[in-house]
Amino acid sequence: MSFDVLQDKIRAMKNPTVAGLDARIEYVPEHIRRAAFEEHGVGLKGAAEAIYQFNAGLIDALCDVVPAVKPQSAYYENLGWQGMEMLERTIRYAKSKGLFVIADIKRGDIGSTAAAYAEGWLSGASIEGQQFKSFDADCVTLNGYMGSDSINPFLKAAKEEDKCVFVLVKTSNPGSGELQDIVAGDRLVYQVMGDLNERIAAGTEGKYGYTMAGAVTGATYPSDIRALRKRLEHTFFLVPGYGAQGGTADDVRYAFDKYGHGAIVNSSRGIMCAWQKTGGDGHDFQEAARNAAIAMRDDIKQFVTIV
Ligand SMILES: O=c1ccn([C@@H]2O[C@H](COP(=O)(O)O)[C@@H](O)[C@H]2O)c(=O)[nH]1
């Protein structure tokens, strides 16, 4: 049960946070960009290579501070196959450094197509009776608003591989309420989504009591996080929106259970782009990212004690 593995790592490091790897080429320090463009040309290949070098440097700097990383697929897809190759390499490198990898892919489609996505991201493709893995993430994010048949193929793959998923429930963006906060009978739409998600994964609880289907609950809606924590006792939370989107440690505290378990808080730009605030030229990007990750950990630890 993969949330057990993640929770064990969080406890060992006393750090319930995940560093996002959402690298745009503008976030990569000049010296890394220049070297990659000289070797591979100014274009998709050069940019993808620069981003991989940046990611590898961040992973080296962060792997003994944070338990997990969350590469966001969009920032690799925008560079075509060259970007996706670097995403696969980034995942492999992060795993080799002991990090738990959450691939933020937000997929959701009819069952047959969802099964193909699940092979790509979790279980591997079956070719002539053999299993070939590609992205091989530990966990993925899903958009389950198409219904349980869009989630189930991922749960099947996750069960076979001892992995897990996070399903969007209450997202951090300003427009999330347009649909998710609509009243549906005696519940709100996001509560319906959360209940459905907990129900379809019932029976997969691990040693910490959490099923293999976690939920995304944005840091920017703290009262909803608090209500969801009470409502979804068996659902592990991924909480994005800390830092760059305005979420604070005080806002995310209620995502955790009474043992300080059951949630992990993401920051992407706040860690990756920390070097842009030091006044340096980017050569200090590793130190800056590490300091930002440590500051985030200590900020949250003021409110959350992990048993
Ligand atoms: O509701 C959601 C779901 C996912 N995200 C993702 O998290 C990171 C946030 O990045 P920051 O730079 O820390 O703001 C990004 O990958 C989003 O796609 C989210 O923000 N909200």
CATH architecture: Alpha-Beta Barrel
**Terminus-to-terminus distance:** 20 Å
Q: In CATH, what is the homologous superfamily?
A: Aldolase class I
Name the poorly predicted regions: none
CATH topology: TIM Barrel
- Average pLDDT, rounded to a whole number, is 97
- Measured by DSSP, the beta-strand proportion falls in 15-25%
CA radius of gyration: 19 Å
Helix vs. strand class: alpha/beta
Number of separate domains? 1
CATH class: Alpha Beta
Describe this structure in words.
Its EC number is 4.1.1.23. The active site is at 106 (proton donor). This is Orotidine 5'-phosphate decarboxylase. The chain is α/β, with parallel strands linked by helices and 307 residues long. It has one domain (3-301): Aldolase class I (TIM Barrel), CATH 3.20.20. It has 13 helices and twelve strands. The chain has helices at residues 2-13, 30-40, 44-62, 74-77, 80-96, 111-123, 148-161, 177-180, 189-200, 222-231, 249-252, 269-272, 285-301; strands at residues 17-21, 68-71, 100-107, 125-127, 130-132, 139-142, 164-170, 183-184, 187-188, 213-217, 237-239, 263-267. Strand 8 and strand 9 form a beta hairpin. Helix 3 (44-62) packs parallel to helix 5 and helix 6 (111-123) packs parallel to helix 7. The structure holds ligand LLZGTKA7. The site of the ligand O=c1ccn([C@@H]2O[C@H](COP(=O)(O)O)[C@@H](O)[C@H]2O)c(=O)[nH]1 has 19 residues, from strand 12 and helix 12.
